[in-house]
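Page 47, continued from p. 46.
Same chain as before, 330 aa.
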Amino acid sequence: MLRNGAAAAGGGGPGAGGAATRRPVRVWCDGCYDMVHYGHSNQLRQARAMGDYLIVGVHTDDDITLTIDGKDTYEEVKTAGRYRECKRTQGVSTTDLVGRMLLMTKAHHSNIDEDLDYRKHTDNFGKGPKGHSPWTGVSQFLQTSQKIIQFASGKEPQPGDTIIYVAGAFDLFHIGHVDFLEKVHQLAEKPYIIAGLHFDQEVNRYKGKNYPIMNIHERTLSVLACRYVSEVVIGAPYAVTADLLDHFRVTLVCHGMTEVVPDKDGSDPYEEPKRRSIFQLVDSGSNLTTDLIVQRIIKNRLEFEARNQKKEAKELAVLEAMKRLEEEKH
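Result:
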């Protein structure tokens, strides 16, 4: 069972007939999974590696792991010896992402020095009177090659694969993006999808405000976690050039139904694939966009801050209770 670092496994080891008759290990994990990000994806990846079959439970609007009377909801599986924990992904939380939307700062972009006011506001965002909870609080994200390896598929294009290129910001990677990539994946019998991610400054040029909400490193992990994506180009050029198409041997270029903003010189970024007759618009069937998510957050700001303060107060109470139990044991 897994909630921000915990998992319960069922099934067990080999039966009387030995390893050949081993029952499949079924793993359960649950959480709020609000505004799903690569931290959630990493949790599910680790949980899946603990067994053969993963079941995920999604909580209602209160995701604290306590019952009404204050008891640990995982107490029963812990007592049964079926509770496991995995490593929490540092540097990402829904709290931090929401803070970026509300504060309208660009300090989270790559190659931009951190704004001290931004850090002060995020440190206080939703903070309860007794301090920070390690689960709801904000920490710094540091990209490493190992993180990328863990998320990457590691698969090379094979003979007969249809290499499809898509490009964009893929900011706050959401179900609209997944629906689009699924539709693209269905365009070929053996698709190999390469996603080109634009640098933060490029995204900010055509999106404005303080977009992207997630920087290039965070967006890379979010897209790599998608099952339909085989490869990611980190910092892809805005214009889909002949060099890019030839280098990756692209046979199809797809774009969603969102507006295509001209390049800096006013040209069409898809001019080359259109000239080669390999450009195709794909309707995801979803109307969810990053802008709509941000608008929801801004509209419900006060409610979110109150929810965070209440949630963090409960989590701090749990920490105090756990500390007391440890002291009593000794």
